[in-house]
Structure formats: structure tokens, C-alpha cells
Automatic annotation (TrEMBL):
Ranges where the EamA domain occurs: 17-153
Protein name: EamA domain-containing protein
Compartments it resides in: Membrane
Keyword flag Cell cycle: no
Organism field: Mesonia mobilis
UniProtKB keywords: Membrane, Transmembrane, Transmembrane helix
Record's keyword annotation contains Transmembrane helix: yes
Length: 169
């Protein structure tokens, strides 16, 4: 995707194409830190700590983007948007992060992260409810995601040798 995009528009900054790789790596590191070092800390406390640290750079971005101007805060559309963002933040991110942190603590990192592969499937369901049109390629892609989750989580059956087989060795 990156190379085909570069061929279509060679003046674009390709550094942004690699940010999802960085984010994915940080996500994996986060899961392992929670499992290894934060096992005894409640999931709510971990989440509060994460969002407290994130509040500092997020506030700086809003300050430098002139978000807190009077015309922005007095606009009805902006107030409505802020309300929806607040709901999405609390329900879609806050509660989900608490549940995810707890899932990491009570299971293994592979299982916990495989749950996130279902996000496109949930998005597909929301799209159907919203009346979006989906083609064959989207359905096949969703199937591939589910197959990947299944393959990552299946347990290999190890055949235990019988007493007779052990004696032969």
C-alpha cells in the first residue's frame, strides 16, 4: 500500500505510513508489561495511570491547536461533537481498556491480543446497521481475520507416548 501510494503521489511524507507499525509494536510491549510487571495492580488503576500520563500531551496538542478559543467552545456543533467524543472516550475507550487490562491479567498475552482482531468484525456489524454496502472482498477479509485468530489460539495436541513406545526408545 505504501509503495503504490508513493507511485501515485511522490510528494507525500511516507514517515506517517510507518506509524501504525510503531503503534503495533508499542501495543505488544504494553501487553507484556501488564502481564509481567503489573499483574497485582487492579486493571482500573492501570487504566487511570495510562490516561493520566496521556492527558499531558493531549492537553498540549489542544492548546497549540487553538481548541480553547471562545468561538470553538460556544459553537453548538462543537459542543455536540465534544459530548459524543466524551461518550466514546468513556465507553469505547475507558471501559474497554479496563476490561482489556483485566483480560491480559487473567489470560495469556496471545489470547488477549487476539481479541483485538475482532475489531474489524464489529466495525463490519456497525457498517451493516448504518446501511453501508459491503462486497465479497470485505467478507473474505473478515473471514481471514477470524481464521487467523483461530489459528493463533488453537492448542496443538501433543501425543503422549505410551509405555510401550517409551520402552522402545
Amino acid at each position: 500500500m505504501v509503495s503504490s501510494g508513493a507511485k501515485m503521489n511522490d510528494s507525500q511524507n511516507l514517515i506517517y505510513a510507518f506509524l501504525p507499525l510503531v503503534a503495533t509494536s508499542m501495543y505488544a510491549i504494553n501487553v507484556h508489561i501488564i502481564k509481567r510487571y503489573l499483574q497485582d495492580i487492579p486493571a482500573l488503576s492501570i487504566t487511570v495511570g495510562c490516561f493520566t500520563v496521556l492527558m499531558i500531551p493531549a492537553t498540549l496538542v489542544l492548546l497549540f491547536a487553538d481548541f480553547f478559543t471562545a468561538e470553538n467552545l460556544n459553537d453548538t456543533a462543537t459542543q455536540t461533537a465534544i459530548g459524543y467524543i466524551a461518550i466514546l472516550s468513556v465507553v469505547g475507550t475507558g471501559i474497554a481498556k479496563i476490561l482489556f487490562n483485566r483480560l491480559v491479567q487473567i489470560s495469556n498475552p496471545v489470547f488477549s491480543t487476539s481479541v483485538t482482531y475482532l475489531i474489524p468484525v464489529v466495525a463490519f456489524g456497525w457498517g451493516i446497521l448504518d446501511g453501508e454496502q459491503f462486497g465479497f472482498l470485505q467478507i473474505v477479509s473478515g473471514g481471514i481475520i477470524l481464521l487467523g485468530v483461530y489459528m493463533a489460539n488453537r492448542k496443538k495436541k501433543i501425543k503422549k507416548p505410551t509405555l510401550k513406545e517409551s520402552a522402545l526408545k
